[in-house]
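Sample intake sheet
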Amino acid sequence: MNPVLLALALGLLGLVDAAFSGFRAYAGRDARIRKHRAVARASARGLAVGAVLLLAPALTAAGVLLAAADPARTYAVLADGAIGYLAPLALYAAAVLLSLAAYFVLPFRASTLAMVVGLGPLTLLRPVAVGIACVGAFVCGGAGSLLVGAVAGAAVLSVEPFVHRRWYAEALMADRRPSARP
């Protein structure tokens, strides 16, 4: 596979994950029924934070290439590591997309069940998927690929906590007026 396409696929996957991370940081914080703008804002915040954090693995890959005695060979090895990194994440993303498709296609009760059975556990398994991707990067590309993969994994796993702490640390309330109670 073309290394540029690999990098674009991994970058796109990371950015989509960052947008979902922004949403997850916001989810459950607001009891309003109509909150489309707030959801879009939270997703945009996650996307922005993710775009900045995903510069770290790109710079790490550039550093590995600059430090290499044979940049052409190192480039090929990093591309092999990217395939090993992408494969488990693509399977994970397919499972998430299947769960989301079930949510949008099925009737209300079944779609709720799809969310609880699908996306709940998948969210908890997200760090495991990143860990398996790092193992795949190491097996297919060695230590340099593991380094880039670990930095990328740390970046994507940091988006949600950062967005949560920055914008959603306190519960949001529809009525922001001070309470009459002490």
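Comment: The radius of gyration is 19 Å. The CA atoms of residues 57 and 152 lie 5 Å apart.
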